[in-house]
Design goal:
- The protein is α+β, with helices and mostly antiparallel strands.
- The protein has two domains: about 1-50, Orthogonal Bundle (Arc Repressor Mutant, subunit A); about 55-98.
- Helix content is about 60%, strand content about 15%.
- It has four helices and three strands, in the order E-H-H-E-E-H-H.
- The chain has a three-stranded antiparallel β-sheet with strand order 1-3-2.
- Strand 2 (about 35-40) and strand 3 form a beta hairpin.
- It is elongated.
- The model has no long low-confidence stretch (mean pLDDT about 95).
Length: about 100
């Protein structure tokens, strides 16, 4: 994502580990909600760009605290302090490979 909140759908699909057809269906729903717009890439018309609208950015910002809380409840709360440290070490090692 750039400062303009725009990204090629093919790149977004790869980052989300999604197929392009599945992401395209999701983008239709997001467009209907007014959260994104899509247009051909002016640099290469074979690609489609998705741009997060102001309403979409507000949705992300509004959703983030509840999302973080739910991840904490599902992933971290069931683990002991030692297990959390081991998870942190494992995830750090994975992140270093990416």
């Amino acid at each position: 994502m750039t400062e303009t909140h725009t990204m090629r759908l093919s790149d977004l699909a790869a980052q989300c580990d999604s197929t392009q057809p599945r992401l395209s269906k999701l983008m239709v729903r997001f467009e209907q909600q007014g959260w994104v717009t899509r247009c051909p890439d002016p640099d290469n018309g074979r690609y489609t760009l998705a741009t997060l609208t102001d309403a979409g950015l507000h949705k992300v910002e509004d959703s983030a605290p509840a999302h973080v809380e739910r991840v904490r409840q599902l992933v971290f709360d069931p683990l002991s302090a030692a297990q959390q440290r081991h998870l942190g070490a494992a995830l750090s090692r994975i992140a270093a490979l990416v």
